[in-house]
Amino acid sequence: MTKTATDTSQDQEDLGEAGSQLSTAPKEELASLPGLGVIGWIRWFWRQLTSMRVALLLLLLLSLGAIPGSLIPQSGADINKVDDFRKAHTTLAPVYDKLGLFHVYSSVWFSAIYILLFVSLIGCIIPRTWQFVGQLRGRPPAAPKRLTRLPAYTTWRTEADPEQVREAALALLKKRRFRAHVAGDAVAAEKGYLRELGNLAFHLALIVLLISFAWGQLYKSDGTKLVVEGDGFSNSILQYDDFKSGSLFSNDDLVPFSFNLKQFRGTYELTGPNKGTPRTYQAKIDYSQGAFGKDTPTTIKVNEPLHIGDAKVYLVSHGYAPVITVRDGKGNVVYHDAVPLLPLDGNVTSNGVIKVMDGYKNAQGKSEQLGFQAFFVPTFDPKSGTMLSAFPALLNPLLAVNAYHGDLGVDSGIPQSVYQLDKTHMQAFKDGKGQLLKKLLQPGDTLTLPNGAGSVTFEKDVKQWAGFEIVQEPGSAWALGGAVTAIFGLAASLFIQRRRVWVRAVRGADGVTVVEMAGLGRSESAKVPDELGDLAGTLYDQAPGTPDADDESTESSVVPAEGAEK
């Protein structure tokens, strides 16, 4: 077999159909002015909109548009932060309002970019899909007249008949998973269609992601609820402590279910540098679906939510709810309940408010309201001298209470937090020294109010509460599938190369068969020459070369042609 040299001539001929359609990407053409008339302008606009440059520009604009949505408080996420921002930035707030920066994702300009990107992707994918389908239904193009013009080329002479060489080449290429057929005096083969399939899958996945994100933003709901042990929750907007939803969400979209919190259990590291670090948080509940569903016991853990239809119930927080009993001066119980207190640190040092709104009368028989500020530590350390918990578990609970009487302001019609005490119309109870009445209570202790006003008892039962977040994201599964498809599609388009191989076998003037092999890839890569060399070596074993007169090397060389068109 003779070693061949590449054709270094710069005057190369057009490869024609053999070098075409290695990609379904539209050809880049110089933009021309549209013809006169409305139709001409519409066609010009459509060509620009569906071009790759415009799609990338719209994707960049969409990314830039999401930046203010992440940095500026959004009315759909937290209206209180938006109000605080308006109060703190009186100059910027009106400008942001006009630009829609407090509701970026539902603004006109963001929606316009979103829709244009969506249309651009569809307009780009549809023609490429039909072109790719046409390529799959067709056959690889016939070999060019001059194979020496191709990037990778080799040749040798053999005594085998041309028909035998072509049959052997056809069988070899099909075995290597090439689509191959005999076209004239050569075998034409092609491989790497998954590249274009991955490219199309990537673009289709982007459309799925756009639809999923839009669907999720419009129909999503997210609410939180604090539930004390022994209490329950029904999935209704009125039951939530905090609730936000998409612009097209309605109450009927809530998944019907309910649950009761039977027990919350938390374990912590007892020793070592990580002392007090939570090891497990889990809430045992009984839940039911629909109005007449049967109770089903289950356990919700951190990062292991309960799935009920399209809703997910997450365990997000935890704290303590001391059981408090308040009596009037005659010993009548006017309040008895577990009071959830909010944690202030990692050791669950907590504070909160106890409000007695109805049923209480003072020593003179006048109806009043009572308010108590409560400060709770689950593990009190007498050596520290401070009301800071030394450990998050209930080892030595202690409750500090301050007492007030008067008007809580709950009947004014102005909403107020259940965790804050409005002292505007309240008076503090005083001790014998005229100081604010306060006392440290252990479980079972009682604080007696002065002048026969009643008492407050810290019961021995300390319950725990769990905070749940209930989320409905109808497009999350589609978004995940689109993201995974986009990753695999992009990987296929980057790492799989579309390439073609031709094997020509003709009888020379001296009666000896001349075998030529050439390869062409979509982009410059060492894989095409290497693969062609491997194919040539295998075919050479079936159609061995004839020694020439100069006794040159009997092994074939695959040499990339200098200046050859890719």
UniProtKB/TrEMBL annotation:
UniProt entry tagged with the keyword Cell membrane? no
This protein's record includes keyword Transmembrane: yes
* Transmembrane intervals: 53-72, 108-130, 200-219, 477-496
User: Which Pfam families does the record associate with it?
Assistant: ResB (PF05140)
Subcellular location(s) per record: Membrane
Database matches in InterPro entries? Cyt_c_bgen_Ccs1/CcsB/ResB, ResB-like_domain
Limits of the ResB-like domain: 52-532
Which Gene Ontology cellular component terms are annotated? membrane
Q: Which GO terms describe its biological process?
A: cytochrome complex assembly
Q: Where is this region: Disordered?
A: 1-20, 526-566
For this UniProt record, give its keywords in alphabetical order, as a comma-separated list.
Cytochrome c-type biogenesis, Membrane, Transmembrane, Transmembrane helix
* Membrane topology listed for this record: Multi-pass membrane protein
Mind telling me what this protein is named? Answer: Cytochrome c biogenesis protein ResB
Q: Which organism is it from?
A: Streptomyces broussonetiae
